[in-house]
Design a protein that fits this description.
Elements (H helix, E strand, L loop, with lengths): L13 E2 L10 H13 L9 H21 L5 E5 L2 H18 L8 E5 L5 H12 L5 E5 L9 H7 L3 E7 L11 H11 L4 E5 L18 E5 L10 E5 L25 H15 L9 H18 L3 E3 L10 E6 L4 H10 L2 E2 L1 E2 L11 H5 L4 H5 L2 E4 L6 H20 L17 E7 L2 E8 L4 E5 L6 H11 L2 E6 L10 H9 L19 E4 L5 E7 L2 E7 L8 E6 L11 E7 L2 E2 L2 E2 L9 H14 L5 E4 L11 H7 L1 H8 L4 H16 L22 H10 L4 E4 L3 H6 L4 E2 L2 E5 L5 H7 L8 E5 L4 H12 L4 E4 L3 H4 L2
Parallel strand pairs: 1-11, 3-4, 3-5, 5-6, 16-17, 22-25, 26-28, 26-29, 29-30
Antiparallel strand pairs: 2-8, 7-8, 9-10, 10-13, 12-13, 14-15, 15-16, 18-19, 19-20, 20-21, 21-22, 23-24, 27-28
Helix pairs in contact: 1-7, 2-7, 3-4, 5-6, 8-12, 13-14, 15-17, 15-18, 16-17
């Protein structure tokens, strides 16, 4: 286990995720440490040590009033904004219950782009207190501004209205005066909470000059420690303590006060209140910072789109998307280059969009590819300069990897060669590159990856030999046709069938079972098309291998692109209107006859991020599949069992699954970060696989770890690695490492499942390895 002192920021780290949390100001940390060491009294104690502690409490409360403009009402210290939100909502709902409101159809209104803490708390306490109101989202326009007409129409029936002063994802701020006018003109008595977390230090606040009833704040969003916050409650607003007990905070919030946290707020509030101190920068300075960052982003990302209007957003937040790049690609690149930002999706096959951008009506690619870059009101010019330099340096690695094109039209020699798996929401797109021949094929593309492929082809001037689908559902977008139109003269103008196969492909290859099949060349290899209906009536399998004397022997096969016929851990479903389980039975037997048990199968879906499989592995885990291959089961028996399997999919949580995936995966063997160096010293023959993508590796190249060379094998190319190292499964030892441990875990599990005996991974990855 790592010691706490081992966990430190990386050298030259550029932190641009202040909307998530800020670093603690030295003055705030010093105040907290001083209080812990020397002012350790309990503010409720009547002796002199307690009186000194109470002085810290009282002066901080006074300073809080000063910086928030709360000349009256209550200022209550909390554990943070979530507690403040809970307290506000419980107080409002409890008051509505006590007042026996006579509204026939009561509603609880909240902004559609609010932090999840607000709607989830409303739903929870609405149910727990048996209020019976409908929780309703207030729509926003394309700029994220609340629909005032909607508020006007619903305010009369509202028991509570919850809005925010500025959004945490986009920085979009609301016109509080305009909101107040529409709320109060339609319901003077409705209780109104404004989440002010992102406003303090960036927007002038005069709470007592408004009719805001509740305003929560959080210390860790303004350079204080986590676990401390403030709640403003208007003088006339009802209040129900969320935490009862010893009666601290004048009975408003029991529990011994977090005095060190409060002391840190004392230091921050003093800086905010001091007009002669420049720790917190002026609005004009913050605007200049944003302009500088935006200029650099515009320079390095020609396809950038900002997801908010700068005129109605805080200057400290930039939310953007880049056409053709996933948020994961950008965030992983920046993280490798020591630039900390927030992305909309994690390192997994599941793509998650931004509910904030969805509410604003932004396109799917913007929502799913969004990056939030946020600095703080105490950021310095040097920090912004460092950030701009780091961004320029990082993005050059993306250009080298052909993820984006350079405006200078530089020619980059991409290292990509062989097979890559591009995954989007568990859908697999397979890209095979023959670098020597400068040829490429694409199999089962999804529309969201069209731009990525076009950029790769344009960057390397590749000839596109084929863009293919293994099958097509009626409602499915024709991605191959979209790509062909986009590529124009970058591929031949042939006639194509519905799956993208060229009608001019006249070459025929003899398969292992004696059948003849249409084929086309890519470099020195051939891609063969085999009809394998069953999942759909148009399903095919593409087989890539080396043809000799017109024959493709099973042992000469490199990859089998099986679509949804054979999946990792299951057989594709056959209960669609265009499915036929009898045909699927025949197709499975055909695949077994023309391939071999160790041929690498590359399916159209990868639900568990395991990349590839073989008939041998699948037969061990799937008795039904094994029975079909051996001929131990009839078509009728197969159809009956398969129907039972498919019914289980229909009743599952995800009805979109194209197969019934049930196999459990053995966990990886961990080498914890604190043990990694000693492990590498003791196992000097181990190969360290850095499974980050090549642009991440190049953004902050680290070639050695404990004197052992790192080999960069991007996770997207792990199937190629399995193919190329099939003879090293028992002799070689591998340690997989990545940015955080998620991808190295996937790589290690894949290698172990494919028969590699000595495989380890590093949980926490480079984030915890110094």
């Amino acid at each position: 286990m790592l010691k706490l002192t081992d966990i430190q920021p990386q050298q030259n780290e550029v932190y641009l995720d202040n909307n998530a949390t800020t670093p603690v100001l030295p003055q705030a940390a010093e105040a907290a440490i001083h209080t812990m060491n020397l002012c350790y009294g309990n503010p409720s104690s009547s002796h002199m040590t307690g009186i000194r502690a109470k002085y810290i409490l009282d002066t901080t409360r006074s300073l809080a009033r000063q910086v928030t403009g709360a000349t009256n009402g209550e200022i209550i210290f909390t554990s943070g904004a979530t507690e403040g939100i809970q307290t506000s909502i419980i107080s409002a709902l409890n008051a509505s219950r006590d007042n026996n409101h006579n509204i026939a159809k009561p509603v609880l209104l909240y902004g559609a782009t609010e932090h999840k803490a607000v709607p989830e708390t409303l739903k929870h306490w609405n149910q727990m207190l048996n209020i019976g109101a409908e929780v309703v989202a207030i729509p926003v326009d394309s700029n994220g501004i609340l629909d005032q007409q909607f508020i006007a129409e619903h305010a009369a029936n509202a028991l509570m209205v919850c809005t925010m002063i500025a959004n945490n994802e986009t920085g979009v701020f609301q016109d509080i005066k305009a909101l107040e006018d529409v709320i109060r003109s339609n319901n003077p008595d409705v209780l109104w909470m404004v989440d002010c977390v992102q406003g303090l230090g960036k927007i002038d606040l005069e709470l007592s000059k408004t009719t805001i009833d509740y305003a929560p704040f959080s210390g860790h969003k303004l350079y204080g420690p986590k676990g401390i916050g403030v709640l403003y409650v208007r003088e006339s607003a009802p209040y129900t303590p969320f935490i009862a007990g010893g009666g601290q905070e004048s009975g408003l919030r029991s529990g011994t006060e977090n005095l060190p946290g409060i002391a840190s707020l004392n230091a921050i509030f003093r800086l905010l209140a001091d007009e002669n101190d420049d720790t917190f920068k002026s609005h004009e300075t913050l605007l200049a910072y944003r302009t500088q960052l935006a200029d650099v982003l515009n320079e390095v990302f020609p396809g950038i789109v900002y997801n908010h209007d700068f005129d109605c957003s805080l200057p400290t937040t930039l939310n953007f998307s880049v056409k053709g790049l996933s948020g994961k690609d950008i965030m992983n690149l920046f993280d490798a280059a020591k630039i900390r930002v927030s992305g909309g999706s994690a390192c997994s096959s599941k793509v998650a969009g931004s509910f904030v951008l969805d509410a604003m009506g932004k396109s799917k690619w913007q929502s799913e590819g969004a990056i939030r870059m946020s600095f703080g009101p105490a950021s310095t010019q040097q920090e912004i300069d460092n950030a701009c330099e780091a961004i320029r340096n990082a993005v050059s690695a993306m250009q080298n990897s052909c993820l984006i094109l350079s405006d200078a039209n530089d020619s980059f020699d991409s290292t990509a060669n062989g097979l890559q798996q591009w995954i989007y929401d568990a859908q697999c797109t397979w890209c095979y590159i023959d670098k020597a021949a400068k040829e490429v094929i694409l199999i089962d593309p999804v529309p969201e990856l069209v731009s990525k492929f076009d950029t790769l082809v344009s960057c390397q001037n590749y000839k596109v030999k084929a863009v293919l689908s293994t099958h097509k559902h009626a409602e499915q977008v024709d991605a191959p046709a979209i790509i062909r139109e986009l590529l124009g003269d970058k591929m031949s103008a042939d006639e194509f069938d519905q799956l993208g196969w060229s009608n001019s492909a006249k070459t025929e290859v003899e398969l292992a079972n004696g059948d003849k099949a249409s084929a086309l060349s890519i470099g020195e290899k051939m891609l063969v098309k085999v009809a394998t209906p069953g999942h759909t009536d148009n399903s095919v399998t593409y087989i890539l291998g080396t043809v000799e004397n017109g024959k493709l022997a099973s042992e000469a096969i490199d990859y089998v692109f099986s679509g949804d016929a054979i999946q990792i851990g299951g057989i594709g479903r056959s209960d669609f209107a265009v499915s036929d389980s009898d045909a699927l039975y025949d197709s499975i037997q055909k695949l077994a006859a023309i391939t071999n048990s160790q041929s690498l199968i590359c399916p159209a879906h990868d639900y568990k991020q395991l990349f590839t499989t073989t008939l041998s592995i699948e037969s061990l885990n799937n008795s039904l599949l094994a029975a079909v291959i051996k001929g131990d089961i009839s078509k009728a028996e197969f159809s009956a069992e398969k129907a039972d399997m498919d019914k289980q999919i229909e009743h599952s949580a995800d009805t979109q699954l194209c197969g019934n995936i049930k196999e459990s995966i053995d966990p990886s063997i961990d080498v914890t970060p604190d043990k990694l160096v000693s492990f590498l010293v003791e196992h000097d023959d181990v190969v360290v696989l850095d499974v980050r993508e090549s642009h991440e590796y190049e953004a902050n190249r680290q070639e050695y770890l404990a004197d052992q060379k790192l080999v960069n094998i991007p996770l997207s190319q792990i199937t190629e690695f399995v193919h190329d190292h099939s003879n090293d499964k028992t002799d070689a030892s591998y340690v997989c490492i990545c940015r955080s441990g998620a991808r190295s875990d996937a790589a290690a599990k894949t290698l172990k499942r494919m028969g590699f005996e000595n495989v380890y991974h590093v949980p926490g990855g480079f984030a915890l390895v110094s």
